[in-house]
Design brief:
Layout (H helix, E strand, L loop, with lengths): L3 E11 L2 E12 L4 E5 L4 H16 L8 E7 L11 H11 L10 E3 L2 E2 L5 E2 L5 H6 L7 E5 L10 E6 L14 E3 L13 E4 L1 H16 L3 E5 L5 H9 L31 E2 L7 H5 E2 L4 E2 L1 H4 L3 E5 L7 H6 L1 H6 L1 E6 L2 E6 L2 E7 L17 H8 L4 H4 L4 E5 L8 E4 H17 L6 H11 L8 H17 L7 H11 L3 H4 L3
Parallel strand pairs: 3-4, 5-8, 8-9, 12-19, 12-20, 13-16, 16-19
Antiparallel strand pairs: 1-2, 2-4, 6-7, 9-10, 11-21, 14-15, 17-18
Helix pairs in contact: 1-2, 4-5, 4-14, 14-15
Bound molecules: zinc ion (ZN).
Length: 481
């Protein structure tokens, strides 16, 4: 007696992406037995009873024979309940109770005891991660029909009953996936000269992907200036395979868009929330900010360890995650922007009276360690403001200005010996010769960005001078008292 056999595809969402898996079903004569093999967790084992009942309630015959389900590849742990549907389909196909359509087709969904096919938004990350795989048709719970799905061919099932006619139905074809690229817009704002100067610094940060920090009095417009950047960020041109913006199991799921992320976690965020961690691995704000900006408002209110944990990804563009015995490097790509009050009361250096002692202020600012500051390129302060908000900025114009510079930066050619020339200047000048190598590199890189902003293919002395101002701005902290 040859055992009956069927193989059904499904998807599994793992912390580092979606994987296609195969559900192999073998049925042979023997005592009634139902086993699931292939690194199935206890959660998947529970599905045995659920699948059996769901099949019976839907009027199918559950074979009273030895049923072996083999989940392949075996080394990946399977935690999710959404394999129910694929297992049920495999049993029905092996026992020739249904016929599934030709061609690769993946089944994804859980089952209710009444035979309903279950699943909702929690399945969206599976689909978006798998969307480059255009050849497969997906069979999904009906409830996903109205969700934002990637383009492809789909069957939607409300109930196991629907499997009886799946062979005669035609998959729905979704052609264009709507991209949600709405963002905060500001259209027009009026800035005073101090705010404008600060904003210029932030624009350099965006153009050259320089990390920046802004110390300023409450009400000086720190948050507003940063927020204005959100809608100016250029769209992503291509999809970067390292872009992990959609890594979210539960919680806030975000569909990948061309829009660059601007993440601004609250200062009560935990280290795991910011950097990522846990089992199964949950992506942190760093991963969600991939290709965009991670903005920490009230940066000194964050726990110290959090700022320190950003040091490695800031500089090396990767994050090392240690899980059980496994060490994994995750690529990161974000521009860090911080803003904070200059003292506990916030009024230091402003028109209002500050009641903090110098000792207290120093203690407060010590939260930003020297090692951390060393990785920040642009340091700015914004204490003075006037009511003469005479500079008008228009969003669409700023977008155009920034985009022109991004394109210029990509296509310009610079003199080969430029870097070494700037290096020599920095090595010889009193203000800069004692700076660390890292700082000097930052100055060279920022000077290049400023030159790009100026649409100049040569880095001029004025650009270097301006870059030095930003890069040694942090010394202000040490000059207190
Ligand atoms: Zn104060």
């Amino acid at each position: 007696m040859i055992p009956k056999r069927a193989e059904v595809g499904s998807l599994l969402y793992e912390w580092n992406g979606t994987k296609e898996i195969q559900v192999e079903v073998g049925i042979r004569r023997g005592l009634p037995n139902f086993q699931i093999l292939g690194c199935a967790s206890s959660l998947t084992k529970e599905s045995r009873d659920r699948i059996r009942l769901a099949l019976e309630v839907s009027g199918f015959i559950f074979p009273l024979e030895t049923i072996i389900i083999n989940l392949k590849p075996a080394h990946i742990p399977k935690r999710m309940v959404c394999l129910d549907l694929a297992i049920a389909v495999g049993i029905l196909e092996a026992t020739e109770q249904i016929q599934i359509p030709e061609g690769p087709i993946l089944f994804l969904g859980g089952l209710g005891l009444d035979g309903a096919v279950l699943g909702g938004q929690e399945l969206l990350p599976y689909l978006w991660q798998n969307r480059n795989n255009q050849d497969v048709t997906l069979c999904l719970p009906k409830s996903l029909e109205k969700e934002n799905l990637p383009e492809g061919r789909y069957y939607f099932l409300e109930h196991l009953d629907g499997l009886r006619i799946i062979n005669q139905s035609v998959p729905q074809i979704l052609e264009v996936s709507p991209l949600n690229s709405e963002s905060q817009t500001w259209e027009k704002v009026f800035l005073d000269p101090f705010q404008m100067k600060t904003f210029q610094g932030l624009l350099y940060a965006i153009l050259g992907k320089h990390h920046s920090i802004l110390l300023g009095s409450p009400g000086s417009g720190k948050t507003m200036l940063h927020r204005m950047l959100e809608s100016l960020l250029p769209l992503k041109e291509t999809r970067d395979p390292n872009d992990q913006g959609i890594w979210t199991l539960g919680g806030d799921f975000e569909i990948p868009t061309k829009k660059r992320p601007f993440r601004s976690p609250h200062h009560s965020a935990t280290e795991v929330g910011l950097v990522g961690g846990g089992l199964p691995f949950q992506p942190g704000e760093i991963s969600k900010a991939y290709g965009g900006v991670l903005y920490l408002d009230e940066a000194l209110e964050f726990k110290d360890r959090i700022l320190e944990s950003l040091r490695m990804p800031m500089e090396d563009s990767y994050l090392e995650i240690v899980r059980l015995n496994e060490k994994t490097k995750i690529k990161t790509d974000f521009t860090l922007m911080l803003s904070a009050n200059p003292c506990p009361c916030g009024n230091y250096h402003s028109n209002n009276t500050c009641h903090c002692s110098l000792q207290k202020i120093r203690l407060y600012l010590q939260k930003i360690s020297g090692a951390f500051l060393d990785r920040i390129t642009i340091f700015q302060t914004l204490f003075e403001t006037t009511n003469e908000r005479c500079i008008q900025l228009e969003e669409y114009r700023m977008k155009k200005i920034l985009l022109d510079r991004i394109i210029f930066r990509k296509t310009r050619k610079t003199p080969e010996d430029e870097e070494s020339k700037i290096q020599r200047i920095l090595d010889s000048e009193n203000r800069t010769k004692l700076l660390s190598l890292r700082k000097k590199k930052q100055i060279i890189s920022l000077a290049r960005t400023i030159a790009d902003w100026d649409l100049s293919s040569r880095t001029k002395e004025a650009h270097i001078r301006e870059a030095v101002e930003y890069c040694i701005g942090y010394q202000w902290i040490y000059s207190l008292g």
